[in-house]
Amino acid sequence: MSLLNSRRFSLGSRGLALCGAVLLATACASTSPTADTRAAAAAPTGAPVKVKVFVAAMFEIGQNTGDRAGEFQHWYERYWKGATPVAVPGALQPVYCNADGVCGAVLGMGKVNSSSSMQAILLNPKFDFSQAYYVISGVAGTPPQRGTIGEVNWATWLVDYDLGHRWAPEENKPGEPTFMPRKGYEEYRRFKLNPDLVGWAMKLSADTPLKDAESARKYRLRYPDAAARRAPFVGTGTHMTGDTFFHGPGMSKQAQYIAKLYGADDYVITEMEAAAITLVIKRTHGTDRVMSLRGAVNFDQGHPKESTLQHLDPAPGETAGGFAETVENIALVGTRVVDHIVKNWPTWSVGVPKP
Protein backbone atom coordinates (compact mmCIF):
# COMPACT_ATOMS: atom_id res chain seq x y z
CA MET A 1 0.00 0.00 0.00
CA SER A 2 2.86 2.07 -0.85
CA LEU A 3 -0.34 1.22 -1.53
CA LEU A 4 -2.15 1.09 -4.78
CA ASN A 5 -5.37 2.08 -3.10
CA SER A 6 -3.48 5.12 -1.84
CA ARG A 7 -2.45 5.78 -5.40
CA ARG A 8 -5.97 5.11 -6.57
CA PHE A 9 -7.17 8.13 -4.60
CA SER A 10 -4.16 10.35 -5.05
CA LEU A 11 -3.96 9.90 -8.79
CA GLY A 12 -7.70 9.81 -9.35
CA SER A 13 -9.55 6.51 -9.52
CA ARG A 14 -10.89 7.02 -13.02
CA GLY A 15 -7.37 7.66 -14.31
CA LEU A 16 -5.96 4.54 -12.69
CA ALA A 17 -5.98 2.41 -15.82
CA LEU A 18 -4.07 5.06 -17.75
CA CYS A 19 -1.69 5.61 -14.86
CA GLY A 20 -1.07 1.87 -14.59
CA ALA A 21 -0.24 1.70 -18.26
CA VAL A 22 2.17 4.58 -17.88
CA LEU A 23 3.80 2.96 -14.86
CA LEU A 24 4.23 -0.35 -16.66
CA ALA A 25 5.51 1.22 -19.86
CA THR A 26 7.60 4.10 -18.62
CA ALA A 27 7.93 3.84 -14.85
CA CYS A 28 10.84 5.95 -13.76
CA ALA A 29 12.13 6.48 -17.29
CA SER A 30 15.66 7.74 -17.06
CA THR A 31 16.49 11.27 -18.01
CA SER A 32 19.39 12.29 -20.19
CA PRO A 33 22.69 12.83 -18.34
CA THR A 34 23.64 16.41 -17.61
CA ALA A 35 26.97 18.04 -16.95
CA ASP A 36 26.79 17.07 -13.28
CA THR A 37 30.13 15.30 -13.34
CA ARG A 38 30.12 14.69 -9.60
CA ALA A 39 27.07 12.48 -9.88
CA ALA A 40 28.17 10.90 -13.13
CA ALA A 41 31.51 9.99 -11.60
CA ALA A 42 29.70 7.59 -9.28
CA ALA A 43 28.85 5.18 -12.10
CA PRO A 44 30.66 1.84 -11.60
CA THR A 45 33.80 1.57 -13.69
CA GLY A 46 35.61 -1.32 -11.97
CA ALA A 47 35.47 -1.70 -8.21
CA PRO A 48 31.96 -2.07 -6.79
CA VAL A 49 30.23 1.02 -5.47
CA LYS A 50 30.42 1.15 -1.68
CA VAL A 51 26.78 1.84 -0.86
CA LYS A 52 26.25 3.93 2.26
CA VAL A 53 22.51 4.50 1.90
CA PHE A 54 20.12 2.88 -0.55
CA VAL A 55 16.76 4.59 -1.18
CA ALA A 56 14.04 2.33 -2.52
CA ALA A 57 10.96 3.88 -4.15
CA MET A 58 8.14 1.88 -5.72
CA PHE A 59 6.96 3.95 -8.67
CA GLU A 60 7.50 7.13 -10.63
CA ILE A 61 4.69 8.73 -12.61
CA GLY A 62 6.70 9.76 -15.66
CA GLN A 63 10.27 11.02 -15.91
CA ASN A 64 12.68 11.21 -13.00
CA THR A 65 12.70 14.99 -13.15
CA GLY A 66 10.83 17.89 -14.67
CA ASP A 67 7.25 16.61 -14.51
CA ARG A 68 4.71 15.52 -11.91
CA ALA A 69 6.59 13.86 -9.06
CA GLY A 70 5.90 10.34 -7.89
CA GLU A 71 7.78 8.53 -5.13
CA PHE A 72 11.24 8.80 -6.69
CA GLN A 73 11.52 12.22 -8.28
CA HIS A 74 12.40 14.36 -5.24
CA TRP A 75 15.06 11.87 -4.18
CA TYR A 76 16.44 11.76 -7.71
CA GLU A 77 16.64 15.53 -7.98
CA ARG A 78 18.41 15.73 -4.63
CA TYR A 79 21.03 13.04 -5.16
CA TRP A 80 21.27 11.70 -8.72
CA LYS A 81 20.64 14.41 -11.31
CA GLY A 82 23.07 13.62 -14.08
CA ALA A 83 24.10 10.25 -12.63
CA THR A 84 24.64 7.42 -15.09
CA PRO A 85 21.92 4.76 -14.74
CA VAL A 86 23.28 1.31 -13.92
CA ALA A 87 21.19 -1.45 -15.45
CA VAL A 88 20.71 -4.47 -13.17
CA PRO A 89 19.43 -7.73 -14.68
CA GLY A 90 16.30 -8.79 -12.81
CA ALA A 91 15.50 -5.33 -11.45
CA LEU A 92 12.60 -3.27 -12.74
CA GLN A 93 14.58 -0.04 -13.16
CA PRO A 94 18.25 0.99 -13.11
CA VAL A 95 20.16 2.00 -10.02
CA TYR A 96 21.56 5.51 -9.61
CA CYS A 97 24.49 6.40 -7.33
CA ASN A 98 26.35 9.57 -6.45
CA ALA A 99 29.94 10.07 -5.36
CA ASP A 100 28.91 10.04 -1.67
CA GLY A 101 27.66 6.46 -1.83
CA VAL A 102 23.95 7.31 -1.87
CA CYS A 103 22.17 5.01 -4.30
CA GLY A 104 18.55 4.46 -5.21
CA ALA A 105 16.11 2.87 -7.60
CA VAL A 106 12.45 2.31 -8.39
CA LEU A 107 11.68 -1.29 -7.42
CA GLY A 108 8.07 -1.66 -8.54
CA MET A 109 4.75 -1.90 -6.71
CA GLY A 110 3.68 -4.90 -4.64
CA LYS A 111 5.57 -7.51 -2.66
CA VAL A 112 6.79 -9.74 -5.49
CA ASN A 113 7.68 -6.89 -7.83
CA SER A 114 9.64 -4.88 -5.28
CA SER A 115 11.38 -7.75 -3.48
CA SER A 116 12.57 -9.38 -6.70
CA SER A 117 14.10 -6.07 -7.78
CA MET A 118 15.75 -5.66 -4.38
CA GLN A 119 17.18 -9.18 -4.53
CA ALA A 120 18.66 -8.58 -7.98
CA ILE A 121 20.27 -5.32 -6.87
CA LEU A 122 21.69 -6.75 -3.63
CA LEU A 123 23.31 -9.66 -5.45
CA ASN A 124 24.73 -7.62 -8.31
CA PRO A 125 28.55 -7.43 -8.10
CA LYS A 126 28.58 -3.77 -9.16
CA PHE A 127 27.52 -2.82 -5.62
CA ASP A 128 28.90 -3.44 -2.14
CA PHE A 129 26.05 -3.43 0.39
CA SER A 130 28.08 -4.79 3.31
CA GLN A 131 27.66 -1.60 5.36
CA ALA A 132 24.61 -0.07 3.69
CA TYR A 133 21.57 1.55 5.29
CA TYR A 134 18.19 1.31 3.58
CA VAL A 135 15.29 3.75 3.31
CA ILE A 136 12.17 2.06 1.92
CA SER A 137 10.20 5.09 0.81
CA GLY A 138 6.75 5.69 -0.60
CA VAL A 139 3.16 6.81 -0.22
CA ALA A 140 0.61 4.97 1.88
CA GLY A 141 -2.76 4.97 3.59
CA THR A 142 -3.55 5.59 7.25
CA PRO A 143 -6.51 4.96 9.56
CA PRO A 144 -8.22 8.26 10.44
CA GLN A 145 -8.11 7.31 14.10
CA ARG A 146 -4.29 7.47 14.07
CA GLY A 147 -3.04 9.52 11.13
CA THR A 148 -3.70 12.29 8.65
CA ILE A 149 -3.14 13.24 5.04
CA GLY A 150 0.39 14.56 4.49
CA GLU A 151 1.94 12.99 7.57
CA VAL A 152 5.26 11.15 7.30
CA ASN A 153 5.83 8.03 9.36
CA TRP A 154 8.86 5.94 10.34
CA ALA A 155 8.07 2.27 10.93
CA THR A 156 8.79 0.69 14.28
CA TRP A 157 7.43 -2.66 13.08
CA LEU A 158 6.67 -4.16 9.68
CA VAL A 159 3.84 -6.69 9.58
CA ASP A 160 2.70 -8.83 6.64
CA TYR A 161 -1.07 -8.54 6.34
CA ASP A 162 -1.51 -11.50 4.00
CA LEU A 163 0.13 -14.45 5.77
CA GLY A 164 -2.70 -16.27 7.49
CA HIS A 165 -6.18 -17.75 7.20
CA ARG A 166 -9.25 -15.62 6.43
CA TRP A 167 -12.93 -16.43 6.02
CA ALA A 168 -16.13 -14.54 5.25
CA PRO A 169 -17.76 -12.65 8.14
CA GLU A 170 -21.07 -14.45 7.60
CA GLU A 171 -19.26 -17.74 8.31
CA ASN A 172 -18.09 -16.46 11.68
CA LYS A 173 -19.52 -15.78 15.09
CA PRO A 174 -20.72 -12.13 15.14
CA GLY A 175 -18.05 -9.69 16.25
CA GLU A 176 -15.19 -12.19 16.28
CA PRO A 177 -12.04 -11.86 14.12
CA THR A 178 -12.02 -13.47 10.70
CA PHE A 179 -8.23 -13.93 10.65
CA MET A 180 -5.95 -16.60 12.13
CA PRO A 181 -2.16 -16.72 11.72
CA ARG A 182 -0.80 -19.62 9.71
CA LYS A 183 1.90 -21.66 11.42
CA GLY A 184 5.29 -21.67 9.78
CA TYR A 185 5.43 -17.96 8.94
CA GLU A 186 6.76 -16.79 12.31
CA GLU A 187 10.15 -15.69 11.00
CA TYR A 188 8.87 -13.54 8.16
CA ARG A 189 5.44 -12.23 9.00
CA ARG A 190 6.74 -9.43 11.22
CA PHE A 191 9.96 -7.47 11.70
CA LYS A 192 10.84 -5.22 14.60
CA LEU A 193 13.07 -2.51 13.18
CA ASN A 194 16.12 -1.32 15.09
CA PRO A 195 14.79 0.93 17.89
CA ASP A 196 18.03 2.91 17.98
CA LEU A 197 17.77 3.64 14.26
CA VAL A 198 14.11 4.66 14.62
CA GLY A 199 15.15 6.89 17.50
CA TRP A 200 17.78 8.56 15.34
CA ALA A 201 15.31 9.01 12.50
CA MET A 202 12.88 10.81 14.80
CA LYS A 203 15.63 12.82 16.47
CA LEU A 204 16.86 14.09 13.11
CA SER A 205 13.51 14.66 11.39
CA ALA A 206 10.67 15.18 13.89
CA ASP A 207 10.81 18.96 13.57
CA THR A 208 10.91 19.00 9.75
CA PRO A 209 8.57 21.73 8.41
CA LEU A 210 6.05 19.86 6.28
CA LYS A 211 4.03 20.98 3.27
CA ASP A 212 0.23 21.00 3.28
CA ALA A 213 -2.50 21.64 0.72
CA GLU A 214 -5.80 23.46 0.96
CA SER A 215 -7.52 20.49 -0.66
CA ALA A 216 -6.15 18.19 2.04
CA ARG A 217 -7.20 20.57 4.80
CA LYS A 218 -10.77 20.58 3.50
CA TYR A 219 -10.83 16.82 3.03
CA ARG A 220 -9.73 16.16 6.63
CA LEU A 221 -12.77 18.03 7.92
CA ARG A 222 -15.00 15.26 6.56
CA TYR A 223 -13.70 13.02 9.35
CA PRO A 224 -14.63 13.54 13.02
CA ASP A 225 -11.43 11.97 14.35
CA ALA A 226 -8.96 14.33 16.02
CA ALA A 227 -6.00 12.53 14.42
CA ALA A 228 -7.50 12.82 10.94
CA ARG A 229 -7.93 16.58 11.35
CA ARG A 230 -4.32 17.18 12.37
CA ALA A 231 -1.88 19.06 10.18
CA PRO A 232 0.92 16.91 8.73
CA PHE A 233 3.44 15.64 11.27
CA VAL A 234 6.29 13.14 11.62
CA GLY A 235 5.40 10.02 13.59
CA THR A 236 6.13 6.33 14.14
CA GLY A 237 4.19 3.06 14.29
CA THR A 238 3.52 -0.27 12.61
CA HIS A 239 3.46 -0.43 8.82
CA MET A 240 1.13 -3.12 7.47
CA THR A 241 2.31 -4.69 4.19
CA GLY A 242 -0.39 -6.22 2.01
CA ASP A 243 -1.04 -6.91 -1.64
CA THR A 244 -4.72 -6.80 -0.73
CA PHE A 245 -6.05 -3.28 -1.12
CA PHE A 246 -8.15 -3.39 2.00
CA HIS A 247 -10.68 -0.65 2.72
CA GLY A 248 -13.30 0.17 5.29
CA PRO A 249 -13.52 0.23 9.08
CA GLY A 250 -13.82 -3.56 9.33
CA MET A 251 -10.60 -4.24 7.44
CA SER A 252 -8.85 -1.44 9.32
CA LYS A 253 -9.83 -3.02 12.63
CA GLN A 254 -8.55 -6.35 11.37
CA ALA A 255 -5.17 -4.78 10.53
CA GLN A 256 -4.98 -3.39 14.05
CA TYR A 257 -5.98 -6.79 15.43
CA ILE A 258 -3.16 -8.47 13.49
CA ALA A 259 -0.62 -5.89 14.67
CA LYS A 260 -1.57 -6.49 18.29
CA LEU A 261 -1.77 -10.26 17.78
CA TYR A 262 1.85 -10.18 16.64
CA GLY A 263 2.99 -7.95 19.50
CA ALA A 264 3.66 -4.92 17.31
CA ASP A 265 2.84 -1.26 17.90
CA ASP A 266 -0.40 0.35 16.73
CA TYR A 267 -1.08 -0.06 13.03
CA VAL A 268 -0.71 3.40 11.48
CA ILE A 269 0.35 2.85 7.85
CA THR A 270 -0.90 0.52 5.13
CA GLU A 271 1.48 -0.15 2.24
CA MET A 272 2.43 -2.88 -0.20
CA GLU A 273 6.16 -3.60 -0.08
CA ALA A 274 8.19 -3.00 3.09
CA ALA A 275 7.94 -6.38 4.81
CA ALA A 276 8.84 -8.23 1.61
CA ILE A 277 11.81 -5.98 0.82
CA THR A 278 13.01 -6.29 4.41
CA LEU A 279 12.90 -10.09 4.25
CA VAL A 280 15.20 -9.98 1.22
CA ILE A 281 17.60 -7.65 3.00
CA LYS A 282 17.46 -9.76 6.17
CA ARG A 283 18.65 -12.87 4.34
CA THR A 284 21.75 -11.12 3.03
CA HIS A 285 22.61 -8.35 5.51
CA GLY A 286 20.19 -8.43 8.45
CA THR A 287 17.64 -5.77 9.39
CA ASP A 288 19.56 -3.52 11.80
CA ARG A 289 20.02 -0.84 9.13
CA VAL A 290 16.56 -0.92 7.54
CA MET A 291 14.17 2.04 7.70
CA SER A 292 10.64 2.27 6.30
CA LEU A 293 9.41 5.79 5.58
CA ARG A 294 5.88 6.45 4.33
CA GLY A 295 3.72 9.47 3.64
CA ALA A 296 -0.06 9.18 3.98
CA VAL A 297 -2.05 10.24 0.91
CA ASN A 298 -5.38 8.68 1.83
CA PHE A 299 -7.39 7.24 4.71
CA ASP A 300 -8.02 3.50 4.79
CA GLN A 301 -11.78 4.04 5.13
CA GLY A 302 -14.47 6.51 4.18
CA HIS A 303 -15.89 9.21 6.41
CA PRO A 304 -19.13 8.47 8.32
CA LYS A 305 -21.38 9.63 5.45
CA GLU A 306 -19.49 7.67 2.79
CA SER A 307 -19.73 3.97 2.01
CA THR A 308 -16.64 1.85 1.51
CA LEU A 309 -17.44 1.49 -2.19
CA GLN A 310 -17.78 5.26 -2.54
CA HIS A 311 -14.44 5.63 -0.82
CA LEU A 312 -12.89 3.06 -3.17
CA ASP A 313 -14.12 4.84 -6.28
CA PRO A 314 -14.56 8.51 -5.42
CA ALA A 315 -16.25 10.90 -7.80
CA PRO A 316 -14.15 13.61 -9.49
CA GLY A 317 -13.13 16.21 -6.94
CA GLU A 318 -13.78 13.86 -4.01
CA THR A 319 -10.24 12.57 -3.57
CA ALA A 320 -8.08 13.52 -0.60
CA GLY A 321 -5.68 15.94 -2.30
CA GLY A 322 -2.22 16.71 -1.00
CA PHE A 323 -0.38 14.07 -3.04
CA ALA A 324 2.25 16.47 -4.38
CA GLU A 325 2.88 17.88 -0.93
CA THR A 326 3.13 14.43 0.64
CA VAL A 327 5.75 13.06 -1.75
CA GLU A 328 7.77 16.19 -1.12
CA ASN A 329 7.35 15.76 2.64
CA ILE A 330 8.70 12.22 2.44
CA ALA A 331 11.92 13.45 0.84
CA LEU A 332 12.19 16.45 3.18
CA VAL A 333 12.09 14.10 6.15
CA GLY A 334 14.16 11.28 4.69
CA THR A 335 17.02 13.37 3.35
CA ARG A 336 17.73 14.68 6.83
CA VAL A 337 18.57 11.15 7.93
CA VAL A 338 20.44 10.21 4.75
CA ASP A 339 22.56 13.36 4.87
CA HIS A 340 23.42 12.83 8.53
CA ILE A 341 24.55 9.25 7.96
CA VAL A 342 26.75 10.20 5.00
CA LYS A 343 28.22 13.23 6.75
CA ASN A 344 29.12 11.13 9.79
CA TRP A 345 30.06 7.95 7.93
CA PRO A 346 33.13 7.01 10.00
CA THR A 347 30.80 6.62 12.98
CA TRP A 348 27.81 5.14 11.18
CA SER A 349 29.79 2.71 9.03
CA VAL A 350 30.44 0.47 12.04
CA GLY A 351 26.84 0.45 13.24
CA VAL A 352 23.97 2.54 14.54
CA PRO A 353 25.14 4.80 17.38
CA LYS A 354 23.03 5.12 20.49
CA PRO A 355 20.65 8.07 20.02
Automatic annotation (TrEMBL):
Signal keyword on record: yes
First and last residue of the signal peptide: 1-35
Gene3D superfamilies in alphabetical order: Nucleoside phosphorylase domain
One GO-annotated biological process of the protein: transmembrane transport
Record protein name field: Purine nucleoside permease
Keywords, in A-Z order: Signal
Short name of any one Pfam family annotated for the protein: NUP
InterPro entries for this protein: Nucleoside_phosphorylase_sf, Pur_nuclsid_perm
Keyword Signal: yes
GO molecular function: catalytic activity
